[in-house]
Amino acid sequence: MRTALLQSSGRPGSIAANLKVLDEAAGRAAAAGAGLLAAPEMFLTGYAVGDDIGRLAEPADGDSADAVAELATRHGLAVAYGYPERAGGTVFNSAQLISADGTRLANYRKTHLFGCFERDHFTPGEQPVVQAELDGLRVGLMICYDVEFPENVRAHALAGTDLLLVPTAQMHPFQFVAESVVPVRAFENQMYVAYVNRVGQEGEFEFVGLSTLAGPDGVARTRAGRADALLLADVDPAFLAASREANPYLRDRRPGLYGALV
Q1: pTM over 0.85
Q2: Is the pLDDT of residue 262 over 80?
Q3: Which of 177, 188, 215, 262 satisfies CB 3.0 to 4.6 Å to 181 for a cystine?
Q4: Whole-number mean pLDDT of the chain?
């Protein structure tokens, strides 16, 4: 499945403007043969919008979800995007996957919040593994800091995730996560990992770009620089199956030895 990664911070504070950016990217991705477009963490609203997070937050089935479903259907590809989710009086840092026919396939709430900013504005999610079937692949969702916990990604591997989508807001000076940690996660768990970042200065944060799609061999299939970009790379189920046969980490595990971890 050809996968497109939208590296952009859009226009923080304007959902309407960010939906237009997503729409334009979906058109370009579909024209290039992509079946899936992934956008960064908090893409719909912007990340560094402070107390506006509460004002801009929407339910998982709100107006913005309907707008994304419409553009996904119009362009004929699935779309994954980050947004602040309101559920009653609680706000989560969430990511949602919508299919090419407009169906809401999966909604994930970030389980590991990073820093005071996130802990002040969000409640952590409690479900570590959220998946959906898409074009014969089992697709999982995770957000930014979550991927830095090996237990999180291993849980996805044990649940059969083939492609892990990680919308992110990775900031300076932690660029080594994109450059080194993400390819290692893909290799040690034998999956594809799509890490889709924001870019540039936004409030107090400097986002480093470097979005990538890493394969189960630990090799980046594509990598962005530090400017807005639309990346394209293929997720190959046959290569994934062969790699899992050659690198049997999951079969060679000895869970009985790992009790001290929990």
Answers
A1: yes
A2: no
A3: 177
A4: 97
For the chain, give the secondary structure using H, E and C. Answer: CEEEEEECCCCCCCHHHHHHHHHHHHHHHHHCCCCEEECCCCCCCCCCCCCHHHHHCECCCCHHHHHHHHHHHHHCCEEEEEEEEEECCEEEEEEEEECCCCCEEEEEECCCCCHHHHHHHCCCCCCCCEEEEECCEEEEECCHHHHHCHHHHHHHHHCCCCEEEEECCCECCCCHHHHHHHHHHHHHHCCEEEEECCEEEECCEEEECCCEEECCCCCEEEECCCCCEEEEEECCHHHHHHHHHHCCHHHHCCHHHCHHHC
Q: Indicate if the pLDDT at residue 259 is higher than 90.
A: no
Which sequence positions are flagged as catalytic?
A: 41, 110, 144
Two structure tokens written together for 205: 């944060």
